[in-house]
Amino acid sequence: MEVNKPKRIVLKLSGESLKGDLEFGLDSEVLRTIATEIKKISKMNTQVSIVAGGGNFWRGIEFEKRGMDRSTADYAGMLATIMNALALQDELEKNKIEVRTQSALNLPSVAEAYIRRRAIRHLEKGRLVLFAGGTGNPFMSTDTAAALRAVEINADILIMAKNGVDGMYDSDPKKNKSAKKISEITHHEALSKRLAALDSTALTLCMENSLPIVIFDLFKPDNLLKVISGEKVGSKIYTPIKS
């Protein structure tokens, strides 16, 4: 499958990728690297939005296992994504990138409320938009939030930067050294094989809306630039166009 140069993208960053080598929290060098890679595509007329996870601070499912109410745990996780969005906003602005942060949770002192038409208008004006607060609903992952926002704003592609993974594999490469990388696969095949690169809700949403996905290593220099340029990087998930 050839990936054309996308005009509008959603970049999903896992929360774990933001902590670098730290046990938890935010690694300043990681933030600088992300800003540097995004700066490289700033002159390509690509409209960029970002969804960041919160796993570097909080994982709701882990606290549920400890006895916390799942909805309460998930709302705390949404706050973690807002912390990450504000840190990314600060670093991007230091690199002269105009940013607007929109939150699915109502926090007017730190972010705009998420409004689809306003988000699209920001993108059309050349501003980068950070989508924070997940979907605003518990029981939904930030992968699903990224897929939802991508569909809502009519993005051309969902680009997913996973923590320490350069694509989709037939098993967990961190646990199985013999895991094989999959360069291309359809949404349907990925679902039927229960591949765990992203959750099934997000994958189904992308499949139903024929939204292609690229899973790649953001921290390899120029990888994001290559994806935006239409080069083959990482793994691609797509639905074939019917003739």
Largest sheet: 9 strands, mixed
Instruction: Bin the helical content.
Output: 25-40%
Terminal residue distance: 14 Å
- Stretches where pLDDT is under 50 for at least 5 consecutive residues are none
Please give the radius of gyration in angstroms.
17 Å
What's the overall geometry? globular
Mean pLDDT over all positions: 93
Determine the number of helices (DSSP H or I, runs of at least 4 residues).
8
Q: CATH class, anyone?
A: Alpha Beta
Number of strands: 11
Structural class designation: alpha/beta
SSE ordering: EHEHHEEHEHEEEEHHEHE
CATH domain fold name: Carbamate kinase
Number of domains: 1
CATH architecture type? 3-Layer(aba) Sandwich
Topology diagram in text:
Elements: E1 8-13, H1 28-40, E2 47-52, H2 60-65, H3 70-94, E3 99-103, E4 112-113, H4 116-124, E5 128-132, H5 142-152, E6 157-161, E7 168-169, E8 181-182, E9 184-186, H6 187-192, H7 200-208, E10 213-216, H8 223-228, E11 235-238
Parallel strand pairs: 1-2, 1-6, 2-5, 3-4, 3-5, 6-10, 9-11
Antiparallel strand pairs: 7-8, 10-11
Helix pairs in contact: 1-3, 5-7
